[in-house]
Design a protein that fits this description.
Layout (H helix, E strand, L loop, with lengths): L1 H19 L6 H12 L6 H5 L2 H9 L13 H20 L5 H25 L4 H5 L1 H13 L1
């Protein structure tokens, strides 16, 4: 739990420093790999113990309105996953596989999803993003396969 209280610093580091030094963006796929590995431990283990965005949202947003029921539907969450995957793939295709450009692509997807998560957090509750988070859905899928 102590780790979760400071992980928000990593999110800000990736976004702020990553805009100037794009190679910092390579922290994002490392976190994704950690997320995938920990998914075998317990459902959404990464989310509850080490997610930088979740830490940030819990630390700085204090709203507690219910998120829309639509956000909890698997079909809607799959659409969000697909949209993020398509946008990320399109961004990757424009990088020419240059390490700095790839790093910046990771930074930009992190920035975009953080902006969206803050907006949702201010409208509904601090962790509304977590309900529709594409990586959370992937973790849940791995956990179901594991069983």
């Amino acid at each position: 739990m102590k780790l979760m209280k400071i992980m928000w610093i990593l999110l800000l580091f990736i976004i702020i420093v990553g805009l100037f030094y794009p190679l910092v963006g390579w922290i994002v796929p490392v976190l994704m790999i950690i997320l995938l590995v920990t998914a075998f431990k317990r459902k959404r283990y990464f989310c509850s113990t080490m997610c930088p965005r979740g830490s940030f949202l819990s630390m700085f947003i204090r709203t507690k309105r219910a998120s829309p029921k639509l956000f909890h539907k698997t079909g809607f969450r799959l659409v969000i996953l697909l949209v993020f995957f398509v946008l990320f793939t399109l961004r990757m295709m424009r990088t020419e596989m240059i390490l700095e450009q790839l790093g910046l692509a990771f930074v930009m997807i992190c920035l975009a999803s953080t902006i969206l998560s803050v907006i949702l957090g201010l409208i509904y509750s601090s962790r509304t993003w977590c309900v529709i988070c594409p990586m959370g859905l992937v973790q849940e899928g791995i956990n179901k396969i594991k069983k």
